Amino acid sequence: QVQLVESGGGLVQAGGSLRLSCAASVSMFSRYEMRWYRQAPGKQRELVAGITSGGITNYADSVKGRFTISRDNAKNTVYLQMNSLKPEDTAVYYCNAAVVLGLPPLSYWGQGTQVTVSS
């Protein structure tokens, strides 16, 4: 049973920082592309950041320069360092793991962690 467990969410003031973690119980974690998504109330889920198996990163324009995604393959964990947080960053943040080992492609989701940024 594959599990992704997010942690690190909470309440923070604008301008503050949080570090989210996502621990994955998958084999061959290093082959997975890992992504962070978020969903604010009444809005669609959106991609925040991603990191490939080779360590290439990409970010939504709204978080570039403030958020950093990284991974530790030895710990089967992906991180999202969030700095200079803004109230509009308030959302439930979800971890996603995706890989193509055959057909169909595999994709797993965590349960989400709430991030609330107060003004």
Structure overview:
With 119 residues, the protein is mainly β. It has strands at residues 4-7, 10-13, 18-24, 33-39, 46-51, 57-59, 67-72, 77-82, 91-99, 106-109, 113-118. Strands 2, 4, 5, 6, 9, 10 and 11 form a seven-stranded mixed β-sheet that branches.
Which spans have pLDDT < 50 for at least 5 consecutive residues?
none
Mean pLDDT: 96
Termini gap: 40 Å
Order of secondary-structure elements: EEEEEEEEEEE
Rg calc: 14 Å
Would you kindly provide a brief summary of this structure?
The chain has 119 residues and is mostly beta strands. The protein has strands spanning 4-7, 10-13, 18-24, 33-39, 46-51, 57-59, 67-72, 77-82, 91-99, 106-109, 113-118. It is built from no helices and 11 strands.
Task: Outline the fold blueprint.
Layout: E1 4-7, E2 10-13, E3 18-24, E4 33-39, E5 46-51, E6 57-59, E7 67-72, E8 77-82, E9 91-99, E10 106-109, E11 113-118
Properties at a glance:
119 residues; 4-stranded antiparallel β-sheet; 7-stranded mixed β-sheet
